[in-house]
Specification:
By secondary structure, the chain is α/β, with parallel strands linked by helices. It has 2 domains: 141 residues, Aspartate Aminotransferase, domain 1 (Alpha-Beta Complex); 256 residues, 3-Layer(aba) Sandwich (Aspartate Aminotransferase, domain 2). It contains 12 helices and 15 strands. Strands 2-8-7-6-5-3-4 form a 7-stranded mixed sheet, with helices on both faces. It has a 4-stranded antiparallel sheet with strand order 11-12-15-14. A hairpin with a 5-residue loop joins strand 9 and strand 10. Helix 2 packs antiparallel against helix 9, helix 4 runs parallel beside helix 5 and helix 10 packs parallel to helix 12. The longest helix is centred in the last third of the chain and has 27 residues. The radius of gyration is 22 Å and the shape is globular. 44% of the residues are buried. The structure holds pyridoxal-5'-phosphate.
């Protein structure tokens, strides 16, 4: 008889998005003529840009020829992609990251989970609360937590609370931790981190020999050039941080799949005997064994986002979403609601008006304005009383949603 991984049984049955779907379905069945506007999902809505499409078409045509055919590529990604990433995303911003430290992958959701393969048991893990749920669930699956309590929080995880009282920047942990997940600009709160915030974390990690797992999936949405886009803009971060980036939100690759993970050669962990081990070697071994690379066609598409024209197109797409975010901020703010985020991230984090809870507000917005958002409590305890609206939609839908909210809830 075979056994399953018992840790999976500790997972709370993927509560948030299935529950949203259930409520939306129920509403739609009862109100077949209502036209719903979805500002809930963290998926892009604009198509791939012309440069990306052209590069991918050319790659497909190449694949039809003996000369241009590509079979298995390097597990770490093609060097022509790793090199443009190193130059444009890192070296041009003063970060000492070279191509060999960049691993191209099929997603940063996957990599933030997979990274646990190379970490040992017994690490004390800290997550921001509210949080991108993947960090928590992958730790549950890996056996790094105990059971969930009645509030849905797992024993053994350290939750770093983020709310209005600390401007959504959690304090340093007051107990020792070994691994810290940071997401900036943040999903779900839409908050960015300035240099001071990141310097404090890097210093903490150095002092405590901790590892920072830095999710920069939304770095391209940062509008203030003074804000750091990478953890490696902070001196000393090469010794303590792994960074995850993705073409998903940046260039509309959510369905195409391409991302990257940076593992600096200076990052050294300890084995159970206390001896130093280069983390880069372990990740390289892990990827070479369990991953066979991103398709050639996809990597050609990703590389096209770094040409002059490609960069212009990507900036235009991001600018479009950020105008949506500004429209949402302005509309809700002018109703006297408290809004956060939406300046350096495609998410607006709204303080639920009138002291309602997050799910109560979800139902009200759905039933009265026919707008779907995401209840903040679904991202963790500190998200209770907040609501996330996403800027990923057409201009017409965003404007219509704001008009409806003003009319029905204003
Ligand atoms: C969307 C998102 C990602 C990107 O995941 P991919 O697997 O690369 O599509 C990563 N982290 C966060 C916080 C996200 O919201």
């Amino acid at each position: 008889m075979f056994r399953i991984n018992d840790h999976y049984l500790k997972l709370k049955a993927g509560y948030l998005f299935p529950e949203i779907s259930r409520r939306v379905k129920q509403f739609a069945e009862a109100n077949p003529d209502a036209s719903l506007i979805r500002l809930g999902i963290g998926d892009v809505t604009e198509p791939l840009t012309p440069s990306v499409i052209k590069a991918m078409h050319d790659a497909v045509d190449g694949m039809a020829t003996h000369d241009g055919f590509h079979g298995y590529g390097p597990e770490q990604g093609y060097s022509w992609l790793r090199e443009v990433v190193a130059r444009h995303d890192y070296q041009e911003r003063g970060c000492q990251i070279d191509a060999e430290e960049i691993f191209i992958s099929d997603g940063s959701k996957c990599d933030t989970g997979n990274i646990l393969d190379i970490l040992g048991a017994g690490n004390r893990i800290a997550v921001q609360d509210p949080v991108y749920p993947v960090y928590i669930d992958t730790n549950v699956m890996a056996g790094n937590t105990g059971k969930a309590d009645d509030s849905g929080e797992y024993q053994g995880l350290i939750y770093l609370r983020a709310d209005e009282t600390n401007q959504f920047q959690p304090a340093l942990p007051d107990e020792p931790v070994d691994v810290i997940y940071l997401c900036y600009p943040n999903n779900p709160t839409g908050t960015a981190a300035d240099r001071t915030v990141l310097e404090r974390w890097v210093q903490y990690a150095r002092d405590n020999k901790a590892l920072i797992l830095f999710d920069a999936a939304y770095e391209a949405f940062i509008t203030d050039p003074k804000l750091p886009r990478s953890i490696y803009e902070i001196p000393g971060a090469r010794d303590v941080a792994i960074e995850f980036r993705s073409f998903s939100k940046t260039a509309g690759f959510t369905g195409t799949r391409c991302a990257l993970t940076i593992v600096p050669r200076d990052l050294v962990g300890r084995d159970s005997g206390g001896d130093p081990v280069q983390v880069h070697k372990l990740w390289n071994r892990r990827q070479s064994t369990k991953f066979n690379g991103v398709s050639y066609i996809t990597q050609r598409g990703a590389a096209a986002t770094y040409t002059e024209q490609g960069r212009k197109e990507v900036r235009q797409r991001i600018g479009f979403y950020m105008e949506n975010a500004a429209i949402i901020r302005k509309a809700l703010g002018s109703m006297g609601w408290k809004v956060f985020g939406g300046i350096h991230a495609p998410y607006v984090w709204v303080r639920v008006p009138g002291g309602m809870d997050s799910w109560g507000f979800f139902d009200k917005l759905l039933n009265e304005a026919h707008v779907v958002g995401t209840p903040g409590s679904g991202f963790g305890r500190s998200g209770e009383g907040y609501f996330r609206l996403s800027a990923f939609n057409s201009r017409a839908k965003v404007e219509q949603a704001m008009e409806r909210i003003a009319k029905k809830l204003g």
